[in-house]
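hiii, so i know i said id send this last week but things got crazy w the move. better late than never?? heres the sequnce for the chain we talked about at the cafe, plus the structure i predicted for it. fair warning i was half asleep when i ran it
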Amino acid sequence: MIAARIVVALIGAFVLVRTLVSAVRSFVVPRDEPTALTRAVFLALRVPFVAVARRRDHATQHRIMRAYAPSALLLLPVIWIFLLWLCFGTFYWSLDHTTVRRSLEISGSAVTSLGTFPARSFLAGVLSFGEAALGLGLVALLITYLPTIYAAYQRREREVSLLSVRAGTPPSAVEMIVRFQRIDFLDRTEEIWSGWEEWFVDVEESHTSMGSLAHFRSGLPDHSWITASGAVLDTASLLLSSVDVPYEPRAALCIRSGFLALRHVADYFDITYDHNPAPTDPIAVTRAEYDVALQRLADSGVPLKADREVAWRDFAGWRVNYDQVLLALCALVWAPSAPWSGDRPAAFRRPPLTRRGGRGYGTRTAHQRTR
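okay and structure toks below
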């Protein structure tokens, strides 16, 4: 019987350590990988949310899925405290030689700081104080974490909302260039690319430090951080490859900043992709779609480069850097429909959850040009 109590206590200690590691790595350690417990909570809760939202209209789907990330985030401390209760229950059962029910009552009294069921021995009493401190600490972690995550959310959403002024709703690269042409802004876009370059850096830092932030949806059904990313990157790619304006190096830097940010977020979620794609690799945008887009630009008076074949190859060479991760992240966060990102068939398949083969971050671009 003594051996059994020791084994149970050791199992409880192992689970307790894993629980505390999950809490610290989720809320304290920046840019850390998600733990198995955190991943399990988010995946398990995703199933009922997706099942309920799948056959609803777009607006209803958005309302349902918008509650997913906050619900999973608030559920985490509940799971941690529940495991804390069970783990310390094994300790009291092993130390006080009492019944399982009495041990769980002592543990519940300690973790909630009620003190209604005191421990019998001195050592068990010391453990109850430690359990109460850990329970309060986990709640305090969540309370201090929430303002940080919502501050990052507000910074992200400010630019997403501002993009609707320039690229429409849902955001479209073609619409953005057409509007630039209407206001005679095509040759003065350097400030836009500089701002979005900084936005991508901020998204990379915040979405790999606080992984749940990627699942926090925008307030409006057709707004999304990932479709906004796709629209900005496609606009820069079209401008560099197909529009006959002076070469804008800031646009090239924005593309690099963007695809590196999306790749790092994809690495955080263990999404597989080609770290070193070739410029000739296929992309999700077809040549026919590209030609239709260029025709609309031409009809709007946008100056285009004469050689369409070279322009297409250049556009595909830029797009291939972010094509796979863009669509994978659209699938992961259940992004709304948007041209060349959320409307791709692959974006609405089940999210890619297989682990990647390597840990490399793919810092070499597949399409590097200097002028």
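btw The two ends are 78 Å apart (CA to CA). thought thatd interest u
miss u guys!!
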